[in-house]
């Protein structure tokens, strides 16, 4: 059933969307590039990501978000990062498509700590499908149009990313321009969004050594088990800040499971697997809290991330590969 739309609702949706203009993702670690432009170039590989989120399944015209990203650094040197994004969001009669570019610069603050600084200029296109509206006043001359109301907005985001192999703290602000740009149709309706995300990687069995035989050769391959608590806080005036807490467990650098709680909104679970060290497949499910839970059957996310360039192995990874090859060789001899 299509929604009955009055003049006040149209005005609210199309010109004063002061509430949540930033998309929400349960599996936000697989799409951290969306939240912070300083992510681009933070790793010595390139990534291509696509994702789909269907929110509040069971609601008519519930929000649906689709996105695609491509990002990395020049010659994979983790200094000059760049990227491009396309994000489409549809909710009821309103749809929004964003086309975004990205640049980031990374500097070393120490042997293992780096700082990334990024900006993301772009353009947002908003459309309202009047031909799908069911009106309370059938004689309304404005909303009885069979066309589409369309307007656009210039956009700019910026962010900082302090990170190492063990931790990360990132801060970003979206819609910096806001009403400062007056010659586009929708900039006065964009609210500034602030996001802070922090996490710590704890290698549970990091102190455990690979057992050796009498000749000093490894007899068993060690499986890494990592726990990572993550906190994300989003704020847009005049709403109360929203926090998300995630605990993510990763086994053998391939399989992971995450539990998430988002204040006054939902609890969620996410899981994923990395195949051939290139392709990562992730899925997440939200269960709504509060009164809205009786009107929907949850939210689903599917995300794919593909590493498009090869990565030069670190010294630890080279040692692990050597140990594994020796282990396999000994195993064949024993057989």
Describe it for me?
The chain is mainly beta and 335 residues long. It has helices at 7-15, 32-35, 315-334; strands at 4-5, 47-54, 64-73, 80-91, 94-108, 114-129, 134-135, 148-163, 167-174, 193-200, 202-203, 225-235, 242-251, 255-262, 266-275, 279-288, 299-307. The strands form two sheets. The protein has a 14-stranded antiparallel barrel with strand order 2-3-4-5-6-8-9-10-12-13-14-15-16-17. Mean pLDDT is 82; it is low at 1-19.
User: Quick one: how many beta strands?
Assistant: 17
- N-to-C span: 66 Å
Order of helices and strands: EHHEEEEEEEEEEEEEEEEH
Low-confidence stretches: 1-19
Largest sheet: 14 strands, antiparallel, barrel
What proportion of the residues is helical, as a percent range?
Answer: under 10%
- Using the CA coordinates, give the radius of gyration: 23 Å
Which structural class do the helices and strands define? mainly beta
Overall form = globular
Strand order of the largest sheet: 2-3-4-5-6-8-9-10-12-13-14-15-16-17
What's the overall average pLDDT, rounded? 82
In short:
This protein is mostly beta strands and 335 residues long.
Could you list some keywords that capture this structure?
mainly beta, 14-stranded antiparallel β-barrel, two-stranded parallel ribbon, 3 helices, 17 strands, globular, disordered N terminus
Task: Show the helix and strand layout.
Elements: E1 4-5, H1 7-15, H2 32-35, E2 47-54, E3 64-73, E4 80-91, E5 94-108, E6 114-129, E7 134-135, E8 148-163, E9 167-174, E10 193-200, E11 202-203, E12 225-235, E13 242-251, E14 255-262, E15 266-275, E16 279-288, E17 299-307, H3 315-334
Parallel strand pairs: 1-7
Antiparallel strand pairs: 2-3, 2-17, 3-4, 4-5, 5-6, 6-8, 8-9, 9-10, 10-12, 11-12, 12-13, 13-14, 14-15, 15-16, 16-17
